[in-house]
Amino acid sequence: MSTRSWARSGGSTPSAGRWCISTTSAAFKRERALPRGVRDDEAVEATHPTDGVRTRVNPTASEAAELASDGVDRGALVTLFGRCTVDYEGRAASELGLGDRHVMLKPDGAALVHTDEGQQPVNWQPPGCEHDCRIDDQHLVVESHRSSPEESLVIRFSSVAHAAAFAADDPESLDVVGTEADLKERILSSPELVESGFRPLATERETPAGAVDIYGEDRDGRTVVLELKRRRVGPDAVGQLSRYVEALQRDLHADADVRGILVAPSVTERAEALLAEKGLEFVSLTPQGK
Amino acid sequence: MSTRSWARSGGSTPSAGRWCISTTSAAFKRERALPRGVRDDEAVEATHPTDGVRTRVNPTASEAAELASDGVDRGALVTLFGRCTVDYEGRAASELGLGDRHVMLKPDGAALVHTDEGQQPVNWQPPGCEHDCRIDDQHLVVESHRSSPEESLVIRFSSVAHAAAFAADDPESLDVVGTEADLKERILSSPELVESGFRPLATERETPAGAVDIYGEDRDGRTVVLELKRRRVGPDAVGQLSRYVEALQRDLHADADVRGILVAPSVTERAEALLAEKGLEFVSLTPQGK
DNA sequence: GCCTAGGTCCCGTTA
DNA sequence: TAACGGGGCCTAGGC
Known about the structure:
Two copies of one chain form a homodimer.
Chain A: H1 26-29, E1 53-57, H2 61-73, E2 77-89, E3 93-105, E4 111-114, E5 123-125, E6 130-136, E7 139-146, E8 151-166, E9 175-177, H3 180-189, E10 199-207, E11 210-217, E12 223-228, H4 235-252, E13 258-264, H5 269-278, E14 281-284
Parallel strand pairs in A: 12-13, 13-14
Antiparallel strand pairs in A: 1-8, 2-3, 2-8, 3-4, 4-5, 6-7, 7-8, 10-11, 11-12
Helix pairs in contact in A: 4-5
Chain A binds a DNA duplex through strand 5 and helix 4.
């Protein structure tokens, strides 16, 4: 998350200036210029350009383009809602006919097009793109482009119901618990959870087939490879573990005896069958102590 | 995409009514009640409740809660921008301190929290959740909850800079080109692209290890298994193909001779080595004819 | 830049 | 409902 959220990362066409250019705390940290609860009719963009929010309802194409362009230039988070078509071309290609969608342009170059359904955007562009907001044939057109790979997203509005630019200041980063990394820590601090006598020797140990999650020895000194998963696993995880075990067997000696243990909350039936076929083992553990 | 976008799919607390309840074309299809380009101060929510957009700049917590609750009830796409904390608990758990974020509540129950960076939301909830917007200790709190699995997302605002509700009508669905399905069609219509004499016999043929993309015979009548990938592949795809080949060898005869061919634009070095070790083959093909 | 693997992956399809 | 695999996956970490 950026602390200086209004700084443009895309870095093209440095323009007029940014909101709150000289202070780092930005709009939300200073005393509000407006009393709480002002209505749209009181909080016009023109009168409070440094408040961190600029909006327009039912703007003309030109007004929307100006607000969006200015917002992008200032490093704001820009949103548009309206009726549009979306065309994408790059690693794949797609077309989307007219419909009402929510468009978000982020200062890091990401672009998102959301319909009213689904967690995933219907179309998007990853961070690192250049956003271009222009008027084409009297309509607002937003284009988000990047090279390597060459990819372009073109959003053509037939009407814009809402346009907004937000100055975002977000100094915090997310702290997640319950990941595979937590499972790893749990095992490293309590190796006996895997089995009595297990001794971890390395994490991310490299093999010709890739890095092993945890590498160690059992009570009899036999090499043990652990593949960790934070949730119930299917056949893919078995294949992964199998590759590591086979690679290590080749790498150590031709006759090396390497045990492979899949550590996860549970396995599917097919995965269990594959484990049995390959002579691999399973230990049930969750990232949390539950 | 929904044609009746304002219909609530979550289906709880049926309330007052929906925008444009009796027509299916909604706000954007009818003649606009407002001239284009009206300013925020002219387009107040109270005066145009059926125009498909309701917004407030710097609302009080109560006003934001009312707008959001009403929007959710009416099946609108609701957005909030402001300073907030986010707590998630479910399959994993996370905490996020105070910062400026954009929150989107979709009528299908999806919730998205976006910072100014990244294509992915920093926190989210999948479709199927219930959104609850309330006042807690004079602050707006948005909670999105689901059971199976039990998961909850709680967003606590210290201030709301913008609140909006959009009626979204999106009859279109996305049409993508350049997928694995396109590669499959390409091969089925021109099997010789794989190799001269190749004859596809089935797609999605079931094996004990899963469904094979394309199942067929070579010019000598030997069984051939194709694993297709739309892009450059790594070790995982080799493992997948290997599982299918081994399963078929067991399934047909003990001494069955089954060829496995990975079809993709290209492979990584490690994947190539794994292919060689397992006696599998590679054919370079892209979904498009390029 | 590529490679490798994780993800609260999401998502569609099928049994 | 669970399972399985695709995805324009995205994202982080190495090299």
